[in-house]
Amino acid sequence: MSDQTHLQTLITNRTRRLQKLKEQQAQTGLNTDPAVLIEIEDLEAELKTLQRELAAFESQPKEQVRPQAGQAADFVDADQTGLPRIEVKLEEAQMKLTTLENRSQTEPQQVQIQLPPAGLNNFDPSQMTLLQRLYPDEQQVMVEREFGGGFGGTRVFLVRPIDRRGRHLARQIVKIGPTSSLKREQRNYLDYVKKSHPFVAAEVARFAEWQGVGGIIYNFVGDGRLGQTRTLEEVFLDEQISADAINQTLTELLDKALGEQWYHQTEPHICFFDAEYGPHLVELLRVRVRSASQDGLWPVEQTPDLVDGYRYLSADAIPAELSTIEPETPVQIEGLVITKVKPDLLKLQHPTRPGIVVKVETPEATNFTVDQAVTLRGEVLYTRPARLAQIMTTAFANFTEVGVAPQAETLTWNGHTYPNPLHLYPTILSQTLDGQKSLVHGDLHLRNILVDESGHGWLIDFALVKERHNL
Predict the structure, then answer these.
(1) 196, 213, 345, 393 - which has most CB atoms within 10 Å?
(2) Where are the domains of the chain?
């Protein structure tokens, strides 16, 4: 066997093992370490480079790479530099690959979880198991406190791991919540955040899941006294913290960090206002999947035939037919895709018109996944116009000086007349937005920012980071 053939066999072998490792990572999704994924990508790139170098060497005639008689010896024989160098690189790749395989095959070990003396509300055995999967190599994890909960069904904890030699390691932040949301957050961190915000974004160090619940570890790059860190909400409510201090925190985070790296780097953006802002209003339809009925959710490839008693709606037709849909109407809707999964609730959107949103109440929500196209049967609970009118009436119920009539074109306040927003918003949503787009955080609220003892702000939620209208 020639040297070239031998090296080609080694490259092929390493590539196949790497592909098998990638498939194992994709299939399990458990204890997925972002560092492992990055190392796999780097090793894959190295093997492709070596493959190109070997192919170039094989195609090059010997007489083109050897010096002519009498020439200076500054052009060294390719046999002495090309093949041996490739072989050395392949040996290095072999060692890296073996290390990655061993890391991926390590079984999670039982880790002792210590909760705060006062305990934690609704911290069940499944969440204990999830913590153990997040820290498979440690002896113990001390949960020191829970931060104010997020608004998307997530919980955020301050933890301190202890290794198997009994050493206290650096404190970290752990977030527990819906698997689909945390997977998206891990992906967004790697795609958008890691390289642009290393000094204001807590690093997503590991992801794991257990029984439909996901968990993320954040490496916190703040001062060693992390135990004093609070959410921005807690800082804001602390009367001993001055307004100037809070303004300084926000200025450094929003203007100097996010502003320079994201918001100021823009491109033209033209679309309907509905595409950008419609998804953040009340959904067009709220539908309930009833038990003991023909209601249900099916993957689009298993769409059942329309049955008597149900009104058929295509996703495209929902806005036009909204005014004719009454509560308690049984409907069958086709053409929507799942964009968010919560316990007992799904968010469905049109694949190309994101302003068309339907939310579905169903106990089977966690059986479905984000980006899955589905067919829905259920009973309409309300439409957007009806729900907004109800909200408006309730909001102004105690203000006798306000004349409220949801159907009226104007409102009265202390003798003055104002436009009724319920009449304005459909017109605004149908207008064209001619603006700028950039990367934006998408969910920047007081509980998604941690403030360390020096007043430095840290972001801990990246699930909705994407490029969109930068206002």
Answers:
(1) 213
(2) 3-63+76-105, 107-265+441-471, 269-435
